[in-house]
Design brief:
Layout lengths: L14 H6 L1 H11 L1 H4 L5 H13 L6 H13 L4 H13 L3 H17 L12 H8 L8 H6 L1 H16 L5 H13 L6 H13 L4 H13 L3 H16 L4
Helix pairs in contact: 4-5, 4-6, 4-11, 6-10, 8-10, 11-12, 11-13
Organism: Brevundimonas lenta
Protein name: Alkylhydroperoxidase/carboxymuconolactone decarboxylase family protein YurZ
GO molecular function: peroxiredoxin activity
Length: 239
């Protein structure tokens, strides 16, 4: 089996499956490695998007993160590009507030509870996100409840879009991967970032390749499971 990371990111973990089920391994690898072999996206972009999927706070897969840090660096990614992917993976956690704050406001109204009456402080980071067209109305509820905290958080968001490290198109492709990943599957964000990617010039083929990358993560079931099965069979003398 070819262990070139550009062809088979999972390396020798698929060797035993290829021995036991060569046809099955061939089909899985053909589907799973399509983003690397199709040529729709440059390899560096494929590796950085894969890195986003594995390092995301909804996944935190250390082995996959290391594999795709290595792959991204081998493909020419810079330290700053890899760091920015990590920041996007961390920022994904804001969806806890996107989910919870509207529910909190509804339940406050039902219970007759009012928020503390305080003046809204200056929120320059949130203003910057609005000015560059990246404010999401789904963030209004937690901005209403915690404007200072929200501004602190979006100092990170504004920096991602204003850094110039990635093009707007590529930021949107990374964001699609984070939201559509099988460990998150956040439909509102997926739709918003697909819309943003098309607006920024991404093609449908590029967006589908991002979704194919999300699907390729499914091969981890075999990459992780088959070696364990082989070990347990060996322990029982049934290898």
């Amino acid at each position: 089996m070819n262990r070139d990371a550009a062809v088979n990111p999972w390396g020798p973990s698929f060797d035993k499956l290829a021995e036991w089920d060569p046809d099955g391994a061939k089909v899985l690898l053909k589907v799973g490695t399509s983003p690397w072999t199709s040529g729709v996206l440059p390899r560096k972009e494929v590796e950085l998007i894969a890195l986003a999927i594995y390092c995301a706070c909804t996944n935190l897969n250390e082995a996959g993160t290391r594999r795709h840090v290595r792959g991204a660096l081998d493909a020419g990614a810079t330290r700053d590009e890899v760091l920015l992917v990590f920041k996007l993976g961390a920022a994904l956690a804001i969806h806890s507030c996107s989910l919870g704050a509207p529910i909190l406001l509804e339940e406050m109204e039902a219970a007759g509870v009012k928020a503390a009456d305080v003046l809204t402080p200056p929120t320059p980071a949130c203003d910057a996100m609005r000015e560059i067209g990246q404010w999401n109305t789904a963030w209004d509820p937690f901005y209403e409840l915690s404007p200072s905290w929200t501004d602190d958080f979006f100092a990170l968001g504004a920096a991602v879009y204003q850094s110039g490290v990635f093009s707007p198109r590529f930021v949107e492709l990374l964001s699609i991967a984070l939201d559509a990943s099988i460990t998150h599957m956040y439909a509102p964000g997926t739709r918003r970032h697909i819309r943003g990617a098309l607006r920024a010039g991404a093609t449908p083929e590029e967006i589908m390749t991002v979704l194919h990358l999300c699907v390729s993560m499914g091969l981890e079931a075999c990459a992780a499971g088959v070696p364990i099965l082989a070990e347990e069979l060996d322990h029982r003398g049934r290898g």
